[in-house]
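Researcher: I've been going back and forth with a colleague about how Class I SAM-dependent methyltransferase might be arranged in three dimensions. Neither of us has a model we trust, so I'd like an independent prediction. The organism is Flavobacterium soyae, in case that matters for your notes. Sequence below.
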Amino acid sequence: MKDLFGKAMYDFQTNNSPEDIITETSISEEDEMSVEYLFRSYDEMPKIEQKALQLATGKTLDVGCGAGSHSLSLQNDRNLDVTSIDISEKAIETCKLRGLKNAIVENILDFEGEKFDTIILLMNGTGIFGKLENCNMYLSKLKSLLNPNGQILIDSSDIIYMFDEDEDGGKWIPSETEYYGELTFTISYKGEKEETFYWLYLDYNTLQNAAIANGLKCELVMEGEHYDYLARLSI
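Model: Here is an independent structure prediction for Class I SAM-dependent methyltransferase. You can compare it with whatever you and your colleague have in mind.
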């Protein structure tokens, strides 16, 4: 991977002529995303993200931390002990420049040695699962990192609304063999194109079933204004 997302964040943090990130998915046209959005303060965050940060307690792991905005809020506003991980080296450099005390380049599947009271995965936290078939692998790993009374706070969206309805109100889904929330994602930045990657949007019922299959309790904490939701998983 060229780490274009990380480069964009690093450019913004270091005032190196940042540009918008161009995103495109298998079911949507090219769209521009301002890098500044990744640097938002708590007050600028959607209510679902604010709720997740309010519910976080104790030793916390922020998975896929990006530019570190959620971690910074927990570290600075709530005084929590936060570990922030991301596969992007430039993202982690950005986090350190912003003042995060414990930011590490790491894939969650390789992370070991510590247990947490709270694990957060926000901004479509299920995205990193990539495909539906990977849910068990990721949920099992996340569960292994929880303290006995710990919690996983994760958000996603049911993107069924993006598919066309037929005359009797049914939804036209591209393929019966694939889950409709499995997308391929491509991002471009400053004229460079990233390798295409898988990104998973999970409807709540599917997440709940996967959680139960992995010995996790699943609660719907909050629903957003656009088919999005926050869930809390616990042992």
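Researcher: What would you highlight for our discussion?
Model: I'd start with this: The CA atoms of residues 76 and 100 lie 9 Å apart. After that, consider the following. The radius of gyration is 18 Å.
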